């Protein structure tokens, strides 16, 4: 049901954009398969160890519609499968978001369902996102927001950080820093994570195929541990 709702919404938006009288509307897609040395999410080590790899493919459809006040609408599915794991090895996360620019700012609202097929209930978390970003320069943006789950975990995750993106020829370099705190029904309020990321993506041909290398260091506020990991990905984006 979750997949049908998200897919139906995206198809509807795509149809509206395609039917628009302006020629500026653009539809982009990204497909990527990544392998990581361990699965770490918001400072939580979800693998069985620091060297317990996972494969994490995802696909996204992104619609850029200047005629709709410059809005961007995107939806997709991100997945993870632990190479060594137990009954919770599989995760499937469909998502949908809308972003509207206001001067140098961008306001984003979205929804993500975190689905663990081998657990009950399968929909382990439902997050509603509110995010604001400010483009300090064309390459540097400050980001902050909250993600709220009123359905399963009855919690909130607040975050703030910065993202820097620079393109050098066929290579796109991305660095980011994020600090997050959370308050969930089953856990006390606490620093959730401090995460530093560096990623390089090299475009290999005109079809949009690329190779990506990512390095991350995440500090867990609850575990008081640093969890570093590396990801290698192959994808296509047009």
Description of the structure:
The protein is mainly beta and 238 residues long. The chain has a single domain, classed as Porin, CATH 2.40.160.40. It has 1 helix and 15 strands, in the order H-E-E-E-E-E-E-E-E-E-E-E-E-E-E-E. The strands form 2 sheets. Strands 1, 4, 5, 6, 7, 8, 9, 10, 11, 12, 13, 14 and 15 form a 13-stranded antiparallel sheet that branches. It is globular, with a radius of gyration of 18 Å. It starts with a helix and ends with a strand. The relative contact order is 0.15.
Helix count, DSSP H or I runs of 4 or more residues: 1
> Which structural class is indicated by helix and strand composition?
mainly beta
Order of helices and strands: HEEEEEEEEEEEEEEE
| Regions with little confidence, pLDDT below 50 for 5+ residues | 1-22
């Amino acid at each position: 049901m979750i997949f049908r709702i998200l897919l139906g919404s995206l198809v509807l938006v795509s149809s509206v954009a395609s039917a628009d009288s302006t020629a500026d509307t653009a539809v982009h897609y990204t497909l990527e398969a990544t392998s990581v040395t361990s699965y770490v999410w918001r400072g939580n080590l979800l693998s069985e160890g620091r060297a317990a790899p996972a494969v994490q493919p995802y696909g996204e459809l992104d619609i850029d519609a200047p005629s709709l006040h410059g809005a961007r609408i995107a939806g997709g599915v991100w997945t993870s499968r632990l190479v060594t794991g137990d009954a919770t090895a599989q995760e499937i996360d469909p998502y949908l978001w809308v972003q509207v620019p206001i001067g140098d700012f961008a306001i984003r609202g979205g929804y993500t369902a975190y689905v663990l097929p081998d657990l009950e209930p399968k929909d382990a978390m439902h997050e509603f996102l509110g995010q604001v970003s400010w483009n300090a320069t064309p390459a540097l943006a400050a980001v902050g927001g909250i993600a709220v789950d009123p359905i399963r975990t009855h919690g909130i995750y607040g975050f703030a950080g910065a993202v820097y993106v620079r393109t050098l020829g066929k290579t796109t370099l991305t660095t980011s820093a994020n600090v997050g705190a959370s308050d969930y029904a089953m856990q006390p309020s606490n620093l959730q994570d401090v995460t530093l990321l560096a990623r390089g993506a090299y475009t290999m041909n005109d079809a949009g195929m690329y190779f990506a290398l990512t390095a991350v260091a995440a500090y867990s506020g609850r575990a008081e541990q640093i969890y570093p990991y590396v990801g290698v990905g192959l994808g296509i984006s047009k």
